[in-house]
Records
---
Amino acid sequence: MAGIALRRLLGALPVLLIVSLITFALLRLIPGDPSSVIGGPSATADQLAQIRRNLGLDEPLPMQLVHWYAGLLQGNLGRSLLMGQGVVEVTFERLPVTLGLSLYALVITLVAGLASGIVAALRQNTWVDQLAMMVAMLGISVPNFFLGLLGIIFFAVKLGWLPTGGYVPFSQDPWEWFRTTTMPAVSLAMLQMGLLARITRSTMLEVLRQDYIRTARAKGLPGRQVVVKHALANALIPITTVIGIIVSLLISGSVVTETLFSIPGMGQLLTQAVLNRDYPMVQGGLLLTTVFLVLVNIMVDICYAFLDPRVRYDGK
Amino acid sequence: MPAGAPLEDELEVPERRQSPLRMTVVRLFRHQLFLSGLVLFGLIAVVGVLAPLLTDINPNKLGMRTRFQAPDAAFLFGTDNFGRSLWSRTVWGAQLSMMIGLSVVLLNAVFGTLIGALAGYFPRLDNVLMRVNDALMAFPAILLAIAITAVLGPSIVNAILALAIVYIPRTARIVRASVIVLREMEYVQAAIAAGAGHWRILRRHILPNAMAPLIVQLSFLFAYAVLSEATLSFLGLGAVPPTPTWGNIMAEGRQYMVEAPWIITIPGIALMITVMGLNLLGDGLRDVLDPRLRIQQ
């Protein structure tokens, strides 16, 4: 297992290297002079030079690149222009909020997506199947911010069951955390839930057609045992690989959800940073989030190898 | 899923030999999901194309005396906080969404195919191209699009560029997968043995057979592009207000969503219809065009 983990980590190195290069290039792609964009039209020549010096843009490009990687190795991604704090520190302050929300949404996604996909496959072409697939289709078609807005109007304003927005940390008050994050998590989970339900259904249908399922039924095993032990266990293996994509989509989606519900996580931080032209923050936040996702994918791969012995023996 | 419909197709003995294209079209038009998708998406597309005929009110015309009108006979979809006609804004929004979606799809069709074909056909290029591809795909899609628009500045063209950069690697990967399989096919080997050049082999023998998964991908991509652009606009990172994109209308209506819920509901529903139509269209295309999945019906 350790061998697989090591191989995956090494294999991810080129990707991480290019990811960091792209992130580095991003700030240099700003048309014209970034310092005048940041400083605004009223900035004096001195102020512009100061901004350039702070961002390290006054050096020749190769030196900038050296400094960028030297900084990365020391865990230093520069300072946020807006908040004055280090980008890494701000990120680690905000990340737990986004992770908590995403984890909540992930649980909803897995429970609802797997359940509806399995039921749809077992009751193929019945009204249960059609209903589940219609809900899944709605899930992948309704933008999460629209769903969030409708949720606010209905559950927060009309019924008054949940707050319209805001956030209370779990450590402070678990029940309030639950109340403030339920609507965001549900609206965030809908897309992934729809995707997972569709994938689960088609994978289950495929597995249910296999000879070993017929054999299991033929030798008189109870239906439930065939479904759980033979079909589901085998269907879950390919489904595991989708989890990396689901987490990536959750993190992407949280940008909008957090802005909509005023939740102080990474998504809100990055939107604010973009709107305020806080380039080091945008750059650093993007890089750290992506590195995090690459690590998630490596973990998914390891789980996959753990679940499917064929992958382990291939040494792939 | 239309129960057993494609199976009937398989059993039907054609009276005379039909062209594959014709058969595909016939199958598509018997596919319920494809048809419902076509109707939904077609509705929005037609509205977008006919926008100048459907409304003669300028979508940005302010009307201080007509603010917050609920939908009625005078204002079909009501008015917003500046008294602008939401019918006009939504209709023009449809046109913008269609233009943006189509642009992203075209850019993907050209560059995704090019990169995918080169990587799949020339093993030497494969490694380099796919590493860059993997890196671009490692970024969360919306986040990368946001970062690119942050750098380029908010505008419709920049949103199109950002979304193209985000999605081209995904399209390239799909084209590459087909090309790699096709390259090893005997008929391609035969063409190589017969002395056909690389360009001819790619254009005549490989790419036409790689079209099916590409078309399916592009129809889903259209949906993502429309959805992502609306998201960017909603966050204030897409088209600059007062441009009537659906995302912009919803962003502006957000403050008044309790008193005037129609401002967000109408563009929201239009967006939903578009995306659902395209998803259904993509599902139908995949069922019909991708023979590997056809057996599952």
---
Amino acid sequence: MIMKVIDIFQETYSALTANKIRSGLTILGIVIGIGSVIAMVSIGQGAQGTIESSIQSIGSNLVLVSPGFQRGGGPVSAGRGSAQTLTQEDADAIQKEIILAKAVAPEISRRYQITAKGKNTNTQVVGTVGAYPEVRNIQIDFGSFITDQNVRSLSKVAVLGPTTRDDLFGEGTTPVGQTIRINRVDFKIIGITKSKGGSGPLNQDNTVFVPLSSAQRFLAGDTYVTAISIQAQSPDDMSVIQQQISGLLLSRHNISNPQLADFQVLNQSDIVATASAVTNTFTILLASIAGISLVVGGIGIMNMMLTTVTERTREIGLRKAIGAKRRDIGTQFLTEAVMLTFLGGAAGIGLGWVMAFLVSQFAGIATSVSIQSIFLAFGVSAAIGIIFGYYPARRAASLNPIEALRYE
Amino acid sequence: MIECKNITKIYKTGEIETVALACVTFTIKDGEFVAIMGPSGSGKSTLMHIIGCLDTPTGGEYLIDGHDVSKLSDDELADIRNRKIGFVFQSFNLLPRSSVLRNVALPLMYAGVEREKREEIAVSALNSSAFPEKFWRHLPNQLSGGMMQRVAIARALVNNPSLVLADEPTGNLDTKTGEIVLDTFQNLHARQGRTIVLITHEPYVAEHAERIITIRDGNIVEDNRNHNRRTANHDYEGN
């Protein structure tokens, strides 16, 4: 006859509450272990979320064509990105021949010193076309963006990113109509873009946009472009459009071997996948370090259970004498261990949550506690209870009742 | 009814064989009150373990109510102990964190009795060992030794066993409380017709039984009816 579940829980409750301090301290090991795993995974997942959203913010269904190696003229390679063979005509050809391309925006970007009313800054100047905001997911806060008319007429107009605006004119100002000087050429401000957030190299707010033709003529003095952004019709078209663009550009550039292409075509989902792989590794690393404390906590459980079994040898002997079977005793002690880790897991999830909250509050790192990590924590704590409780429980179950009753 | 037929028990430690029971044969009928007496090292503890199904004999047959239990597995023996035998130990062996009532009901838990039913049965067992109701919810360490032993007796009775096996039940008690406990056994025997086996090394304790089996060096040396039986005339009931 096997004990009923409610009886096992009652026995467990009275055993664990008999020595509250010891049970509490043992549970603490698991609380800290589970808490750190939850907190570390939340930091990793928060970082992943931040990186993915900044990649998404540069546009949706985006394919990027950028220059590759400059080929020809001997064995010397000028390095990746050095090629100056991408042109406005390539962009026009993509627009015309690739049906899946919804919008195409070529650009030429370089850093220049920019001055306005005595203040100056050094920032990225992007010469581009009217389709750029659509492709790169940019919104206008004040005024308007560069139009294709501006591009055709070589207008000296500029659209400022909010960070550049702040640096040159001060926060919250609307300098539409004023003039900035880029590389000793005056440009009239016609608009301000909305802030997109992000930081470091992904910060797109610290930018000045000018018409592509004006940038080529007045600033770069050349006709190549440094990148072509293409927006696909739908996410499913990404790899198809990537191949079509490669094929088109290879034939336009008269290159037969794809290995020697003087450009590279990047797919936004590839970038996301790469970044995710990096942050996943990072998350696993953090979780493994935290996992060590969980194992230590589990050893604490085992230690306590072995002590308990020894202390309660006579009790075990009595229970066996009055009819408890091996399985009754084993289940009772295993339940005790699992209950300890389970309680520790529950408290640990709370602690991890608080730790994640504090990290995002005080360290400014984005964190995210997912449902999966909570379920995982519960699963892991129950598993630790079973693994580290099994040996003590088996030892209790296999005690000889005669010797157990004689134990002093 | 319990029957021991040519029971032997030999312990082996390496090459050395120790004979604990040489060849023991006796029968205890239902309703008998038997004392098994002998000095320490006589084999009486070994015999107690075999009678109590805590151990199996090396040779011979041991039958409880006609069933041979000498070759059963550990778990099967646990089941027999649960259904057929009630233990009373020298050191009481009550669970310290459980109330009197829960201690008494413990064997019923392993017998798979419903929770509601258990308390009912435990109450009647406490009543039949004359245990005062006001202590039912107390923990064992709040009770005196004599009281604890009566809780243990109630626990031994709760499964309505074929045999109550008491191992030195008065060993940890002073003479007066010991007397009360022995009275309780005599009452169980006289009024409820319980089969009781009392293991002791003290002739004084053994004299409370109606039959005394004396064992020495693994053999039964005497098996007599006890003619000058001690009876208690304490009026402890109803307190």
---
Amino acid sequence: MLNFSRWAVAAILLPLVIGILCAVPTFLPDATVAKLPGFMQTRVNLGLDLAGGSHLLLEASTQDVAKQRLANMEEQVRTELRRGDPRIAIGDISARDGKLSFMVRNPAQVDAAVERIRPLTQGAGLTGQRDFNVEVVNSSTIVITPTQAGIDNAVKSAMEVATEVIRKRIDEMGTREPTIQQQGGNRIVVQVPGLQDPKALKDLLGQTAKLEFKLVDMTANPSEVAQGRAPVGSEVLPYPGNPAGPPVIAVKRQVMVSGEDLTDATQGFDQNNQAIVNIRFNGSGGRKFGQVTSQNVNRPFAIILDGKVLSAPNINEPILGGSAQVSGSFTVESANQLAIALRSGKLPVALTVVEERTVGPGLGADSIRAGLIASIIAVVAVAAFMFLSYGRFGVYANIAVAINVLVILGVMGILGATLTLPGIAGFVLTIGTAVDANVLIYERIREERRRGRGVVQAIQFGYKEASRTIFEANVTHAIAGGIMLALGSGPVKGFAIVLLIGIATSVFTAVTFTRLLAARWVRTKRPTEINI
Amino acid sequence: MKLLKLVPDNTNIGFVAIRNWAFALTALLTVLAVGATVYKGLNLGVDFVGGLMIEAKFPQNVETDKVRATIGTLGVGESALQQFGDPRTVQIRLPLPEQGGAGAANAVVEKTRQAMVAQFPGVTFSRYDTVSGKVSGELIQNGVLAVVLAIIGIAVFSWFRYEWQFGVSTFVAIVHDVLMTLGFFAITQMEFDLNIIAAVLTIVGYSINDKMVIDDRIRENMRKYRKMDMKALIDLSVNETLPRTVMTSLTVMLALGALLLFGGHVLRGFTAAMMLGIIVGTYSSVYVSSSLLITLGLTPQVAEKKATKKGYAGTAERVGPRDDGARP
């Protein structure tokens, strides 16, 4: 037990040295760390509760995605059957209970209709399932039902696009080191450190940024529009800033140009020094816009964002240059935000914030300071207590605790783990429990001495008997820690990481490393009596 | 140097003799704790009930009544205020607006901020949390699941590795620890949030650590003194490990004491829970789990049978012959 070969000594010391080296960069300023070799660029990340910042959990409504898909399907079916050759007349189209159903007017064409619709569906999943099921009921009604696999696929791809769009938007805002991660099926976690005002961020992420240009329906009867009724081929949309009467307006259903045809959007000012967004279309978008505006001079068109009309300017002359202005009672800030949102593309699905945690930088700094002071006092108090109780062996335990603290930081750096406020609590607790292993060993040595064993034998027995207990106690402790890590959220996780790393490293430092120190002392001094 | 010895050598305290009294006391306290939890309820934080929590820091001391009056005029729902740590920090809790989702919660924060700044110049919101009902439901579910799984996992480990009596006694003792902690939070009405779940799990971890040490010594002594009466054997084991129990509880308490006094207000509830848990866990190691072993009928012979059947403990873990001096 007390004989260590050179190799064994090296094998014990090497990981400790590496661990300590990896902990060093955490205490150095950024500039110095940049000069270090790559393997030492390991730093413990500070959690948002320490660094200050915002944590947002965004959730997409899967129902929204499903609804949108069904609407797209409806559009495709209409186009395919009405415009294709031969034309198949359909009616009674309804999208209810998540299903699309319609009647084929001529029963003889039902089979032909099904043949034409089938290719609109796509494979989904590995089981050969389609994303929609097409069935005929009552001999003339066709029902199209989305399959679960199809919905799952759609949600998955919508979330991937959404994550990308969010990343672009946050990058455009110029925020430092954001973390954007998909979580579960339909959630995205956004963490932005050091943000002073999360309001702007939330406003930006809350916009779907679906931009459309549509013609205003001039034939609509204003009093009917006010009641929400529009002529065939038109729809009533909210228009909060309507200068002429009620906050609604009737627009044609057909889209002139949409945000997909944008190449750029910037914030600017119009001739009245009002904030606006200048947009530029791509080739086909510009052509479409030019064409429609040429045909509709002196009629108004509506600029629609996320289903709301921003403004409805008059077309004074054909707009041919491929660029346009979006006006609509903006402030410079909100115009800038819209420009960013338009540049990064529309979100495929609306996101809502279901959880937000924001910590001001002041509180974060206070917490770090408090945590540091508490840790130092805890270390000093425990170290003094250990020294008073076990003398030389107490010092060994204290060296082990000090190394342990550094190694935990080092391992956290290597793993890229994040230190949170509960993590600091985990640290302080680890300091308290790490010496437990030493206490177990030393009390055992005391006992063995009382039983009359010699110095060397008592130390050997102390380590051997206590090691088994320590191992068992720590395995069970690790079970609790592992469950915390697996099931915990936020603070629980941050605490569990430190606890688990601490359990692993403390067994090593408190048992193996102190045994090395004790063995060295026994071999060089050959004591006949120990003060323990 | 004369070393500090908190527990004299070779103590021989009769822990087991008063175990029936202890059981009665434990049962009474546990019933009280459960009763308090059921009737008074826990002061659940926004993590678990959803809502809005704002921590406001004022430039000078402030009366909570004034803050409450200011918020009362805003029509953002009923507020619950709590001052913690220093008299310049106030925690404000508000219900989430029922409609409008996250944007609406945002608006409430802004509205409150504006009103507060107008009334108390220089006030800042040092942190705020918004948790929707859906997320809080998941958090509570995960939290409860974590605690339950941890207890079961540990009990099963203890059972498979040794005799079933150890599994049962450990399980009962840890459930007792958790219930006492819940009772403490119900009685003090301290806020019960996600951090406290971490604290409860740590208490579970610490408590099991403590029980393992004593259990391990009991098993060692069972192999060593096969004829000894179980009560005497448990007394011996608890006495032998007493110095370690005291030392370790003290070092952990020292560390936690530093955290309680200097660790800042955010961690105060967490630390308080931990300190209570250490006391309760240490108590239950002696008076719940160890004493329960006798009631459950554990004898050295039972242990030996199982060890032989499994064919490991009898040989691998048996300690060698030794001169035990004064001991029987």
